[in-house]
Design a protein that fits this description.
heterotrimer; A alpha/beta; B alpha/beta; C alpha/beta; A: 5-stranded parallel β-sheet; globular; C: alpha/beta; 5-stranded parallel β-sheet; 5 helices
Chain lengths: 102, 134, 130
Amino acid sequence: MSTLHTVNKSPFERDSLALCVRLASKGHAILLIEDGVFGAMAGTDHSDMVKNAMETASVYVLGPDLAARGMSEDRVIDGIQVVDYSGFVDLTKRHDTCQSWL
Amino acid sequence: MATKNFMFVNRKAPYGTVYALESLEVVLIGAAFEQNVSLAFIGDGVYQIAKNQKTDGIGMKNFSPTYKALGDYEVTKLYVEKESLEARGLTLDDLMDLTWEDEDEDYAEKPSIILVSSTELAAVMDEQEVVLSF
Amino acid sequence: MKYSIMVNEGPYTHQASDTALQFCKAALEADCEIFRVFFYHDGVNNGTRFTVPPQDDRNIQKEWSKLAEAHEIDLVVCIAAAQRRGIMDAAESKRQGLSGDNIAPGFRISGLGQLIEGGIIADRQLVFGD
């Protein structure tokens, strides 16, 4: 079984991303949405945590939420794939279960 | 109807927000559907099942006794993440004594709380088909 | 692919309802089915027809009602959560001896069993919240 985890809160606000990373398994995917997109940015206090997570799970970020917040795709951590809502739908198809970290 | 592995994930403390109470209501109603149900208490969610909740002073209803009914509703797997307890200076002794009666063993009373490490909980989560987060 | 969606927050205060809407639209465009959208906690507030948001911004309730009508989506507002927060249909309002009702078109009030049923019947359950 593989899970698509969505994280919608900023790692600076809440421990949702840290908990998600702690409890995700190999082969899972993590999609950062809404305020969670700040977890995708390089050069932050949380970037190392996210880069380590990428050894276990594939990490994605929702492009429209990045753009809304003025965050440039250029500054996203290398290896995090930017997807749109149809990419979000694709991810839910590719993984058996969806789990939200609110 | 199919039988699926349902997990209810609780990460929020009680009373500061409504999520703990209203998620418990889902679990109780959901029990009628005979799915394979488990609950996970992670982060501040562990406070939902802390002992000695006395709410008169804040004018809110103490709904913690309702967790004791879960066993009667055949909700018998309450996973509590060890790391979350330890980070909060808590042990199993600080949590309510929640049990269920095993009819296959002469109604022997068994603990519903299953203390798990993150790694163990991750493995349980990996088995879930429907995950409801509140 | 059949989806069951849960929306835990009301309109405007959190992005949850907006994200759920955008997801549903993308799923429908990909020829997927939205089996049910279940509104819980403050999510029931998406189902009042008395919101008057600014003209130059999206009208979340109307977006849901329009989507439901166009694609025959079942929008369910949880009765327990609705009673706590004052979302009423005509029948419930009469039963409670209240002077009016406010449920929006395309939404119906029902029990938590509908949420569990959605999880059982759909291929995927998604939760949008805070």
